[in-house]
Amino acid sequence: MQILRRGLLAKTLRTALAVAALTAMGLASAQSAKTVRLLVGFPAGGGTDVIARTLADKLKDELGVPVIVENRPGAGGQVAAQALKAAPADGSTFFLTHDHTVSILPLVVKNPGFDPARDFVAVAGFATFVNAFAVSSGTPAKSFKDYVAAVQAGGGKGNVGVPAPASVPEFLVKVISEKNKLDLVSVPYRGSAPMLADMLGNQIGAGVASVPDFIENHRAGKLRVVAVLGDKRQAALPDVPTLAELGLAGFEDVPFYGLFAPAGTSKASIDQFSAALAKVLNQPDVHDRLTNMGLTVGFMNSQQLATREHTYAQTWARIIKASGFQPQ
User: Fold this and answer.
1) Is 168 exposed, middle or buried (0-12, 13-18, 19+ CB in 10 A)?
2) Could you give the CA distance from residue 209 to residue 188 in angstroms, rounded to a whole number?
3) Where are the beta strands (DSSP E) in 41-92?
4) Is there a contact between 49 and 69 (Cβ–Cβ < 8 Å)?
5) Which residues have CB under 8 Å from 269's CB, separation 6+?
6) Could you read off the pLDDT of 61-103 as tens digits, one per residue?
7) What is the predicted pLDDT for the residue at 151?
8) pTM confidence score
9) Order of strands across the sheet with 67-71?
10) Which of 322 and 200 is assigned the larger pLDDT?
11) Is 120 within 8 Å of 261 (Cβ atoms)?
């Protein structure tokens, strides 16, 4: 009888272990089937898109699930931000963006369709960057001062491309125009990629966008970056002066890149993604790749990114109000 009981116990244990193994396999299968989406609010080929794909390729290894970049271009990231708001808060959808969408759009658009403070949660930041003024190869100017002189000689009028309407680049065009007594008109595009296409085709003589948007074509001699923002020259562009050096101070607060999730996303999901991102940024090839693009790499946790976004929005709220701009 005792032998029978031991046999039944062993059989029961084997059955339990088999069920546990099958359950574990099922959970592993479910986990591997999950896909993380990185929403990007600008077209493929632009600086933000390249950054997202660089990180996605490494994040998939750290998270153990596929990480895909999903471009949702339109309205300076507004379309992608609305998509994030509508996404399930289950840790499967994140929004990789820079300052424009989360800090500037809510200040310049009456009804953007989202409220960052209410609808999003900061996940992690990974870099800061600066905007730059560049001229096309068909423009004879070799420097910013050359460009200003050429526009003045031509009657003071000129067109300058910007990646999105009512963006920091558009405000910069306005300030540069007023400072140098020019009549510069901002030409807004749906992202930096189409703007760059027109600059490379000499359809427009100048543009303002981020250093990562311009740097590869600058190095190839296809356009020329002639000025950068920030409080110091950029390591990737040591020969290019800052606008402050050229007499236009007050724009030293640099923009940032970060990741956001839908409000309600669990702390566990945020912590997991944030930890994975921190590991990816510590990989030398990733750090070098982003630095070479003109970014200043630096990890920010959820609270640090939230504070950075809030501070940056306050700075630009004052600048926008002083400019007299009315939300559209």
Assistant:
1) buried
2) 11
3) 67-71
4) yes
5) 90, 91, 261
6) 999 999 999 999 988 899 999 999 999 999 999 999 999 999 9
7) 97
8) 0.81
9) 67-71, 36-40, 93-98, 256-262, 120-128, 296-300
10) 200
11) yes
